[in-house]
Design a protein that fits this description.
- The longest helix is centred in the middle third of the chain and has 23 residues.
- Helix 2 crosses helix 4, helix 3 packs across helix 4 and helix 6 crosses helix 8.
- The chain folds into two domains: 85 residues, RNA polymerase sigma factor, region 2, helix turn helix motif (Rna Polymerase Sigma Factor, Chain: A, Orthogonal Bundle); 79 residues, Winged helix-like DNA-binding domain superfamily/Winged helix DNA-binding domain (Arc Repressor Mutant, subunit A), CATH 1.10.10.
- It has a two-stranded antiparallel ribbon.
- It contains eight helices and two strands.
- By secondary structure, it is mainly alpha-helical.
């Protein structure tokens, strides 16, 4: 099929986009981009044209799905950067308040705004919240207390009616469980896994 696509076979291209159009649309229509319908349609056309032009450079060491995703994300990021250059972009970010769920706010961005980093961090925040919600209550509450509520071991010990040593041991065991889960998640890398002495080891 790849040879037919590179050769310009119209029927092959029709089948290709029947398979991948839903993926392309889902990425371009991601709510956190905050694209208007007109901009989404423009990006869709740009993505389709770039796939046509770039497929000849596709290497089989990765999947076609990855190839398509990469083009989609890059073109969306290009649009974000364009908006940042042309005006002050309002970008979403996740945050927590003590005793409340994650909320999404809008923050003004300047010319130093990094859309790639914003996307990655936002996705990690959402993914981490989902992962924590699926963990047992003991680990969920322990990790939230230390990282999100910034409680010390002493404060955690008082809250859970345990010793300070037990609080530290429990957190370490829960983080080990969390690391195993995070390694299977596409939004996290090994260097970004949490530790007991810092909120993140991830460097830009």
């Amino acid at each position: 099929m790849l040879d037919k696509l590179v050769g310009g076979d119209e029927e092959a291209w029709k089948r290709f986009f029947e398979v991948f159009d839903s993926l392309i649309r889902s990425i371009v229509s991601w709510p956190k981009w905050h694209f208007s319908e007109t901009i989404r349609e423009d990006i869709l056309q740009t993505v389709r044209m770039e796939i046509h032009k770039s497929l000849g450079r596709f290497r089989k060491d990765s999947s076609l799905e990855y190839f398509v995703k990469r083009i989609c994300i890059h073109r969306c990021i290009d649009e974000i950067r364009k908006q940042v250059r042309e005006r002050e972009l309002m970008s979403p970010y996740d945050y927590t308040q003590a005793g409340s769920d994650y909320r999404e706010m809008m923050a003004g961005t300047g010319l130093d705004f990094d859309p790639v980093l914003a996307v990655v961090l936002s996705e990690r925040a959402s993914a981490l919240r989902e992962i924590l919600n699926d963990m047992d209550d003991t680990c969920k509450n322990t990790i939230e207390s230390f990282y999100f509520k910034n409680q010390s071991y002493k404060e955690m010990a008082a809250r859970f009616n345990i010793s300070v040593i037990t609080a530290g041991t429990r957190l370490a065991k829960c983080l080990d469980k969390l690391k195993i889960i995070l390694r299977r998640n596409r939004f996290f890398r090994e260097e970004c896994l949490p530790t007991t002495d810092s909120h993140s080891n991830c460097n830009r």
